[in-house]
Structures are given as C-alpha cells and as structure tokens.
Amino acid sequence: MPRTPSPAKKVNQLIERLAQLATAPALDEFSLQRIDRDANALMKSDPAGAHTVLGGVAALRGDRDETRKRYRTALQIESAFATLFNHSFSLSLLDEHEEALKVAVEALKAYPDDLTLLNRAIKAALESANFEIARDLSSRWDAVSPDRSNPLSGMARQLADAVAGGMFSEKGVREVLCLLTETQRGENVRTSNSRFNSQYGEESFFYERMIRTTPESAAALNERFADQIVERSDLMADPGLKFVGAFIADTSNGSYA
C-alpha cells in the first residue's frame, strides 16, 4: 500500500500549489478553496504549517490583515524556515515590501547562509527602496557564494551608489513606490513582476511594475499616478526624473492583448 504523506510533506505540497497559483495569469478561486480546505484539515497534525499555508491563501486573495494574523499564529507555534520565508514572500505578494524585508532580515539571523532567503531579502530591500541594505546583502551573498553571483546585485549597487552620490534619496524613491502601490490598490489589480533599469549611463533609473490588467487600464493608472506625482513638489524635487516608476500591463497569457 502507498504510504500516506507526512503532515510536513503535505504542507510543502500545498505551498508548491500556492506558488504555482501566484504566477498564474488569473486568480483561481476554486483552487484556492481546495488549498484552504486541505490546510484546515492539517490543523491538528501540523498547526504551524496549516497557518503558514492559509497565510499564503490570504495573500493571494489580497487580504493583508488575515495574512498577518495567520503568520503571527504560525510563528507563535514554531519559527520554521518555511514559515519565515513564506511570510516574507506573502507580504511581497501584497506589495508590503518594507515589512517583507524586516521579516527576511530577521529570518537571516537563524539561517544566515541560506541563498534563497538572501535573495528574498535583496529583492525586498530593492522593492522597498532600502538600496544600501540591498547592497550590503549582495556583499553578504558574494561572501557566502563567491562562484555564483546574484542577478540583483548589480542593480543594488548602482542604486546605492546613486543615493551616495546625491542623485536622489531613499526616502524620495520610497515615497514614489508607496504612491505607486496606493494607486494600484485603488483598482484592485495584482502585481505579477517588477524590474529596475538604469538609463543613459546610470544617470537615471526606471522602475516597471507589471500588473495583471489590460494595456488600457495600465495606461489609465499611469496617468493617475503621474498626476499625483506632479502635485507633489517634494517628489518633483526628489527623486524628480532621476527615478521614474510606471505600470506595465502583463499580457503574457494573451488574454489582455
């Protein structure tokens, strides 16, 4: 007879299913409900794991309060690696990158040489405009894995150098990114990916946030976002045009083309 998977293995399987849903073009509520049901069935055998999975479910549904509640409960039971990593990842799904960074940095105290966690922390540091922290974490990566460079390290160092050179402040960029998130939340659309680019020999930087929507909707959000930037004299001065953010419609599945 086939062996019944252990509770820990079942939790890992549910987390893998959540990860697949997180990259899907559209939110599959039916699949989320099945994962929700399967996680609740593990409450007696692995309560920390069950709450970890349910925190991920809440994040995909865009429920920030429920996400925090589930992970807080899970961590009160057990500070397992999977819970710590997925806590940070789930916060990033909600575009709560400052909080995601704090969770990842705290987790690194217990798992200082884990590359997946280091990568998670570097990503969160960039997304929250903590560029000097991102650069320091990149140096830490190099010390742990000198033969395998991190793909985010180059941009982390460019942005940290730009701050050190007085091109703009982390605070100014952070305000821009927060305003971008506020604009997006008004339309209840999900982030699928993001990227930083340098332009004109690192004389300016461009941040693109890919969102699950139509090109027309992304254009409308960009117009609304730009109008809010223009109304803010502080943001027109810092970062000004040295750091510009924009929404990009994610049409990778073809349904928004």
> Main beta sheet, described?
3 strands, mixed
Oligomer: single chain
Q: Determine the mean pLDDT.
A: 94
Poorly predicted sequence stretches spanning 5 or more consecutive residues: none
Overall helicity: 55-70%
Radius of gyration: 19 Å
**Beta-strand share of residues:** 5-15%
Q: Kindly state the number of beta strands.
A: 3
DSSP helical segment count? 12
Task: Itemize the secondary structure elements and their pairings.
Blueprint: H1 7-22, H2 29-40, H3 47-60, H4 64-77, H5 81-93, H6 97-110, H7 115-127, H8 131-144, H9 153-164, H10 170-185, E1 191-199, E2 204-211, H11 215-230, H12 233-237, E3 243-249
Parallel strand pairs: 2-3
Antiparallel strand pairs: 1-2
Helix pairs in contact: 1-2, 1-3, 2-3, 3-4, 3-5, 4-5, 5-6, 5-7, 6-7, 7-8, 8-9, 10-11
